[in-house]
Amino acid sequence: MLTTAQTKLLAIMQKGDLDAAATEKTEETLALLKILAMSQADVDAGRVHTMDEVIEAIRAKRAPNSNASFTV
Fold first, then answer.
1. What tens digit of pLDDT does each residue of 7-55 get?
2. 68 domain residue, yes or no
3. What local confidence, expressed as pLDDT, does residue 49 receive?
4. What residues make up the domain containing 26?
5. What is the Cα–Cα distance from 59 to 66, expressed in whole angstroms?
6. pTM to 2 decimal places
7. Residue 69 domain-assigned?
């Protein structure tokens, strides 16, 4: 995996010129891969909750006299 310093040096060349769009796409792809790796680490460590658990936690934090509507 590339270090932060190496990704700063990464440049995509097209016909001898810097291709800014390709460089941006590469940076976005690297960012998504990092997010996926972090997410997989959470799953592997058991730091996950079911959707029902999350909804229940949100409902439990709502003010009891709130008039706000909340639909899931």
1. 555 555 656 677 778 888 888 999 999 999 999 999 999 999 999 999 9
2. no
3. 95
4. 4-61
5. 11
6. 0.53
7. no
CA distance 40 to 17: 37
User: Which residues contact residue 19 at a Cβ distance below 8 angstroms, ignoring those fewer than 6 apart?
Assistant: 12, 13
Candidates 44, 45, 4, 48; CA nearest to 27 is 4
Q: What is the pLDDT of residue 54?
A: 95
**Calpha distance 30→34 (Å, rounded):** 6
Q: Residues in the chain, how many?
A: 72
Residue 71 lies in a domain: no
Q: Enumerate residues 6+ apart whose C-beta is below 8 A from 27.
A: 7, 10
Helix (H, G, I), strand (E, B) or coil at 49: coil
Q: Which of 31, 58, 40, 49 is nearest to 23 (CA)?
A: 31
The total of structural domains in the chain comes to 1
